[in-house]
Amino acid sequence: MKTFTVGWLYPDLMNIYGDRGNILTLLKRAEWRDFDARLIELGRGTDKGMEDVDVFFFGGGQDREQALVYDDLLETKQAPLESAVAAGASVLAVCGGYQLLGHYYQTGEGARFPGIGLIDVRTEAGKRRFIGDVVVDADLPDLQPTTLVGFENHSGRTYLGPKARPLGRVRMGFGNNGEDHTEGCIQGGILGTYLHGSLLPKNPHLADHLVRSALARRGITELAPLDDAAEIAAHEKILARASPPRLRGGRPARKASSPGGESHLPVKGA
Amino acid sequence: MRRTAAVWAGKATGALSRISRLGGGTTLPGDVARAIDPDVLRKLSRDLKHGAIVITGTNGKTTTARLISWLLEGAGYTVVSNRAGANLIFGATAAALERAGANGKLKVDWGVFEIDEASLGRAIDEIQPRAAIVLNLFRDQLDRYGELESIAKRIEVALKRLPDKSRAVLNADDPRVAEIGLNLERPPLWFGLDDPSVAMSELPHAADARTCPRCGASLLFDAVYVGHDGVYRCPNGDFARPAPLLAATHIDLDGFESLAMGVGGVRIELPLGGLYNCYNALAAFAAGEALGLDPAFIADRLRTVRAAFGRQERLEAMGRVLNLVLSKNPAGFNETLRTAVDLAGGRNFLIALNDRRADGTDVSWIWDVDFERLRGRAQVVVPAGNRAYDLAVRLKYAGVDAKPPEPDPAAALDALIKATPEGETAHLLCTYTAMLDLRAELVRRGWAKPYWET
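YS: structure for the whole thing
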């Protein structure tokens, strides 16, 4: 039986927005296609099995956890991660994971927390948090449908350098920085995005894209088709929010939520 | 004068809101009165003959407040409480207003207020409670509350402002709550569970992991009771669960029917189910003791308590029993699922997920709920709520054979009743506004009472 291996970076610490949904989607879809699907959990202090991983997942964390992760990332993960990517593995990095793979995160006070610089992006803290549903027109050739849907919740503003290209353009929501309408990045086998939590469950075509990209090095370029009716129905429910009936007024130009109000606190660095 | 005007304006708003069927008038009167006199809650709280208790935490506030009110009322006291789960400062104000007299004075013995985690500071400043209970801190509605860290820090600041003679009553089993308690000057009254027979050996999943506040190492758990609540320690010896002053032992759980446990030599039994309710009952016991109630009286009185609105609320519907259980975040949902499937042997389910502001607009947390528990054991699962389609995907990846998604509450109820055999119980696990929607439909059909009558 062919194997398919997912490597989950810091499942205990970088896991706040239902990231298990992304892992389950990768594993289940591989099982349904008769792969022997395996999960390697890559917590602090271990790099065991990283060379066997087809798709890495790196999720978001809270400030406290993100700070604990950075040192370990440099010490035990960066080198094997770089060689795995060079050998053709895929990486999906969301929110905090996306930021940590870039050059740095700069706080409002100007302090810089370095990332590991695997992708050509930098992030600066913004005052307002971007929270809400997102619809993206993706810039990936093999994606059908061509849209991605998800939810964002971040105050970081991420800007792409020349080596990275955007994952797509936002039709609804804020995306990378709320200025240039881009969302996420693609650089080699690494895909970074602010669409967190259940990104892959509602975007099964993106899950398959990641799997196909990773398996190409083993000569597998076609995946058996699956019945994605439930996933696409959920996808289309969010798509419909980007083009509501005229009577309700337009929603695409959403305002950034203000951190006012007694139960509406800003969250940093997710 | 100003306070009397505020009280009257608030009362009039409440009456209008109920007459016009806008709802039970649970927060708007508070809004109106506070606009006229911002100090109205402070003044009304000062009228309380014996004082007030505030209860906060992610899960269990409403039930714990109900238990404490039940105890105090049984001891012959009058109690004012924000019963309908309106737990922002406006809700507490509205509750006090409703009970104030024509002269603007509150002639009541005790106030028992459940307070939203983010509002605790203001509530403590205005209410000056005799005791503040913190039940637990789980991840909940990140889009609305922000990170657990920022909430925890706010609660710590709030507790440090408690009046001198007041007591903090804290859950020792919750690592983040314990961290708060250990930073307080006056030692809190710690409560916790001590019964390995009802414990899990490891955390439900990685998302519940906690780290040592001092050295950052991942905490080791010797017992896990609910979510990340259990008996834990830092591998480097820098931090550990504080020894509970009040510990529950010899726990017996009977589905959603009842629970029993020993606390300080007394056997407590109450007609609420689930391990999570052991914490609520224990917190109520701790509060009762702190306020001078006799343990034997507490035990006797708890035997006859009724569930709070939408929290294990049981209704008859066309020969089936419907059990309405609020389930609004991963820790709470995993517990209600565990109780429904493992303890109550439930086979029929309606799961309702809404994404309105009060539910949290981000529904990605459903992937941290162990719906896998339903696989092969549930015969009926109806995904409902305005995010029923997301639930359908979640259930598919959990290997659960569910009915088609039914966003419409009436259609969802019809599907559930049709598929549930007569004489059986169906469990309705719902987020907050999804529960309100379903309940409104149940009231329309004459199967439930309006919430201001519960």
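YS: worth flagging: The longest strand of chain A covers residues 121-138.
IM: good catch. Also The first helix of chain A runs from residue 20 to 32.
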